Amino acid sequence: MSAGWCSRGTVWPAAGILLAMLLAGCATDRPFESDRSAAAAYNVQLGYGYMSQGQYERALAKFKKALEQSPRDAEAHAGLGQLYGRLQQDRQARHHFEQALSYSKDDPAIRNSFGAYLCTEGEFDTAERYFLAAARDPDYGTPAYAYANAGICAADAGQPRQAEALLREALQIDPLLPSALWEMAKVHLTLDEPAVAEAYLRRYRSVAPDSAQVRELASDIAQAAIDAAPAEDGTEP
Hints:
Elements: H1 14-27, H2 32-52, H3 56-69, H4 74-86, H5 90-103, H6 108-120, H7 124-135, H8 143-156, H9 160-173, H10 178-190, H11 194-205, H12 212-228
Helix pairs in contact: 1-2, 2-3, 2-4, 3-4, 4-5, 4-6, 5-6, 6-7, 6-8, 7-8, 8-9, 8-10, 9-10, 10-11, 11-12
C-alpha cells in the first residue's frame, strides 16, 4: 500500500467518554436498550483506539463486546471489518463490512472504510465506487479523505493520471491534506515530472514531519531531475 488510509476521525479519550456517559446517566433515566447502545458505542471507541495502537487482541475483544451489547451496531461491524482486514482474515473482514452496510447502507464513513479494504484486496474498480459514493455524500464531513483514498487506490492500480485527478479533488477541498500531497509527489515522479513532484513534496514537508522515507523520496526526485536535464553539449543524456 502506497500510503496510509484515511478513515476515522480522532479517537476520543476514554476517560472523557466515560465521564460524559456517567453524567448523562445522572441526568436522566434511559431505557435499557439505550444504555446498551451507549455502552456499545463506548466499546467501539475503545476498539478503534486499541487497533490504532496495534493492540489487536484488545481491539477484537472490545468490538465483540460491543456486538454483544448491540448486535446491529454498524460501527462495531465496520471496526471488525477493518481489524480482520489487518489480520488478513478476508472472509471475516468481508462478512462484517457487509453486515455494517446492511445496518447502515448510506453511512459514508463505512463506505470509505470498505473501499480501503477492497483496494488492499486488489478490487480497484469496486473500491473506487465506494470511495466516490462517500466523497459525494453531502452529509460526509471529510470528503477529502475519500477522494485521497480513491487517488491512492488508483495509483496502486497503476493508473497515475486517474490518481492525479482524484488527488486534485482532495486537495481542492483540503489543500494541506498530507496523504494527498505525499501521493501527488509520488504520482508525478511516476509520470516523469520531477519538478512538479518536488513542489508537492515541499508542500508535504510543510505540514508533516521529516523521516527517512521522505528523504528517500526527495533523493529519488532529485535524481529524476538530473536524469531529465539535457546534457551540457545540448544532446540528450
